[in-house]
């Protein structure tokens, strides 16, 4: 049976949580840019303008590298407010900024010293690597970052398996350590004053500590505390299966409808593989449920999980929750298996809701009976929209017909990327304000 939560809805916040979190991140970065610039000026300038530019580029590169670590630390406070897909996107663009900044550092420094010594740039770089402590480590770090930047480009990323890309990306941490030791050994600004030295140690300590906390300590602590296990495996269709999970003290797990976990099922052949799946039912403090569509060997193996299998879950992650509501009424739009977080959200949202479920054919509508029962219990409207992709059945005119007051509602959207892009275009044409549109692309899955 579907249960309906009856908690009193929280008041709509005057300031959006996402705005607060973004302002916090931007503010932290801007403040550190100012601090780094001040320390750089206090350290004095070299006589060669190229060396000055190279040192400044190197300092900003070190700052961006630390900021990169913060973006991927998976800290719950930021993740719940911004969303891992957006943090991942920012990480990507900051990464390219870091790449060009460090390249600029290497080029300016090499040509600057070559100008002073009358050596050619190649021999000057070799000489620096052989005679200046920490420079060779910096060259290795830059090489690693170039490789990582190359495999992160879209044309390369599409051709790599997620596990391969992720393994290569782990070398970022090696590059971070090498770059830091280079800064300690050769950075004049680092050693210019005790205040500058303390600042850089604190900066790197906070960045690396955030990664350790968010990606190691917190997952280990939560899984030790909750002891998750598979309690049931329920086929929903020929290609879709639901996995029910129980554990200890689940009422203390800070999960919300719309969020996802990285699930590792600790079997002999799958313990090493983590898959991101959304909760397909709102957490009730007693159990969790995920629903997945077969898309490869990993998801196909879910059907064969045995009751009692231990589960290691990282999360909850994601900002696709009712926490970001701005209006008293909502529209929930799902496409295909994207219905899983939408079905969970329907349990939690308050006020009148309209649910639109887009599928290729009626037989593809997994969890539809649950949706219908839940919609009836909550007084929500439910529209099953089926048929081929063309013509677009969620075009602006169709959406306006299904939900005439859509501009006055929050819109939660989840589905395949082409469908989501089309619906986002329709919402723009209908003039739905951007703060009322909530979606997450779950880009962590690669």
Automatic annotation (TrEMBL):
Its main location: membrane. Residues 223-323 form the FAD-binding FR-type domain. It comes from Streptomyces dioscori. This is Oxidoreductase. It comes from the Bacteria. SUPFAM superfamilies: Ferredoxin reductase-like, C-terminal NADP-linked domain, Riboflavin synthase domain-like. It is found in: Membrane. The keyword Flavoprotein applies. GO terms for cellular component: membrane. Keywords: 2Fe-2S, FAD, Flavoprotein, Iron, Iron-sulfur, Membrane, Metal-binding, Oxidoreductase, Transmembrane, Transmembrane helix. It is a multi-pass membrane protein. The chain crosses the membrane at residues 23-43, 49-72, 93-114, 134-156, 168-186, 198-221. GO terms for molecular function: 2 iron, 2 sulfur cluster binding; flavin adenine dinucleotide binding; metal ion binding; oxidoreductase activity. Pfam families: FAD_binding_8, Ferric_reduct, NAD_binding_1. Its cofactor is FAD.
């Amino acid at each position: 049976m579907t249960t309906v939560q009856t908690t009193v809805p929280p008041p709509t916040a005057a300031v959006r949580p996402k705005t607060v979190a973004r302002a916090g991140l931007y503010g932290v970065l801007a403040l550190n840019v100012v601090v780094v610039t001040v320390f750089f000026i206090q350290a004095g300038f070299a006589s060669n303008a190229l060396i000055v530019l190279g040192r400044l580029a190197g300092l900003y590169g070190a700052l961006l590298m630390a900021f990169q670590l913060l973006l991927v630390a998976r800290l719950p406070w930021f993740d719940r407010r911004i969303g891992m897909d957006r943090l991942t996107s920012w990480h990507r663009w900051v990464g390219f900024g870091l790449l060009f900044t460090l390249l600029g550092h290497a080029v300016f420094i090499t040509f600057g010293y070559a100008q002073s010594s009358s050596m050619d740039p190649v021999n000057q770089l070799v000489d620096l690597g052989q005679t200046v402590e920490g420079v060779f480590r910096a060259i290795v770090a830059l090489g690693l970052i170039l490789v990582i930047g190359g495999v992160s480009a879209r044309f390369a990323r599409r051709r790599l398996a997620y596990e391969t890309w992720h393994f290569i990306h782990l070398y970022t941490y090696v590059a971070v350590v090498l770059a830091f030791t280079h800064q300690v050994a050769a950075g004049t600004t680092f050693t210019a004053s005790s205040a500058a030295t303390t600042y850089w140690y604190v900066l790197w300590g906070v960045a690396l500590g955030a990664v350790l906390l968010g990606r190691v300590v917190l997952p280990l602590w939560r899984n030790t505390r909750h002891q998750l296990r598979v309690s049931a495996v329920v086929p929903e269709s020929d290609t879709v299966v639901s996995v029910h999970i129980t554990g200890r003290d689940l009422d203390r797990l800070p999960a919300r409808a719309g969020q996802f976990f990285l699930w590792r099922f600790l079997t002999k052949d799958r313990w090493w593989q983590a898959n991101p799946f959304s909760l397909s039912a709102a957490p009730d403090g007693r159990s969790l449920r995920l629903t997945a569509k077969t898309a490869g060997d990993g998801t196909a193996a879910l059907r064969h999980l045995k009751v009692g299998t231990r589960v290691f879950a990282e999360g909850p992650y994601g900002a696709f929750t009712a926490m970001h509501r701005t209006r008293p009424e909502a529209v929930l739009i799902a496409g295909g298996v994207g219905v899983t977080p939408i079905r969970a959200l329907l349990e939690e949202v308050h006020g009148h809701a309209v649910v639109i479920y887009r599928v290729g054919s009626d037989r593809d509508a997994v969890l539809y009976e649950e949706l219908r029962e839940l919609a009836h219990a909550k007084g929500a409207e439910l529209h099953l929209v089926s048929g081929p992709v063309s013509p677009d059945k969620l075009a602006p005119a169709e959406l306006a017909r299904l939900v005439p007051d859509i501009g006055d509602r929050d819109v939660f959207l989840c589905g395949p990327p082409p469908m989501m892009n089309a619906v986002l275009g329709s919402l723009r044409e209908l003039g739905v304000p951007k703060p009322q549109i909530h979606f997450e692309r779950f880009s962590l899955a690669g």
